[in-house]
What does this fold into?
Amino acid sequence: MLLIGNGTVITQNPDRPLLDDGCVAIDDGIIVQVGNTTDIREKYSAGEFIDAMGKIIMPGLINTHHHIYSSFARGMILDGEAGANFIGILEKLWWRLDRKLTLEDVKHSAYSTLLECIKNGVTTVFDHHASPHSVKDSLFTIGEVSKKLGVRCCLCYEVSDRDGEAIMREGIEENISFIKHANKNDQDMLKGMFGLHASFTLSDESLNKCAEAMAGIDAGYHVHTAEGLDDVYDSLKKYGKRVVQRLFDFNILGEKSIAVHCVHINGLEMDILKDTRTNVVHNPESNMGNAVGSPPVIEMMRRGIRVGLGTDGYTSDMFESMKVANILHKHNLSDPRVAWAEVPKMLFESNREIAATYFDKPVGILKEGAYGDVIVVDYKPHTPLNKNNINSHILFGMMGASVNTTIINGKVLMRDRKVLVADEGEIISKSREVAEKLWKRV
It folds into this structure.
């Protein structure tokens, strides 16, 4: 039994959003009670008690689109001119990098990135992986690291034609093998999806092969969708249809699928996404950094499409992603009134709902029966905090570095900023060593 109390509890449960002197009780990885600190300590007197010392106790954060391996691009300097557009960025940076990844690189990028997730209070990660010359066992390698560190993950491999048919087929096999493996995981810490890179790097023949492999498989797809205009133009020129329509025609969309970005979609495509109950994930920093545009997520949400929030590998700090999403859409729409409600809904409601399509019990909420994924944030508000202004305090007062303690499935992974499940110094040192060798090959 583990108790986390003597703090202000933000539950993200609309039935009971805030407790001034609250406590969360976790037994065997599951939250059994959320209530007053004194009452819960008396009831579970034998439980281990973590004293939040007046800090914020809240649910662990969920990232619904990450690229774990991309952390190894941090600080990397490449020869030649930088990519001047979306395709240029892919060809001159990301595809150069991922083609050189070995399983050792995959392993150590997973250690360093998931370590950052722990330190930023991210307890559930949906990752989209690529290592075209080390496809086999790549998802299993990441999964093993996530198991050792104790981070809840849903993984996929991005199938693509860009490196030839043999590697495309390896990607299909890796996805299917991993999904079957993860579906047998009775601890509910690891799940799998079927990854696709994007419409413009997949032929009809390849998509047919993916659909055939997915027959009878309990999982959805995770695919970059209309991220750049090149994706749209390619689909129109080759197939006479827009990207979302093409994905729909191959039965890729659905309530267990994630359409990432959706920057360049129209009203008809929004109708398809809504009707198929497909999840969209917004990645504001990536969209701005790649200069691909601002997706119409405010309009999508107005139409009833579920839109979650991710980072696309740009960061592992979901607080940061929340801040950027808030100002991006104000700026893009020239309307300071938007995004106040929509962005918190992305992070705290939609991400939880997306996770619920894969994990058996709720995450991202503190209530009885949910998984014991809890963080303590070192934030003591200097203005009143109440149930009506919670999101404003989170937006303007919290950041990943404010996370003091991270608990996943009832296990304490970090306490008082000290990682307990691994040697942080050793991970970082090895990561630098492996990354330096990788850079020389790129």
Q: What stands out?
A: The two ends are 48 Å apart (CA to CA). The first helix runs from residue 37 to 43. Residues 153 and 190 are 5 Å apart (CA to CA). The longest strand covers residues 18-27.
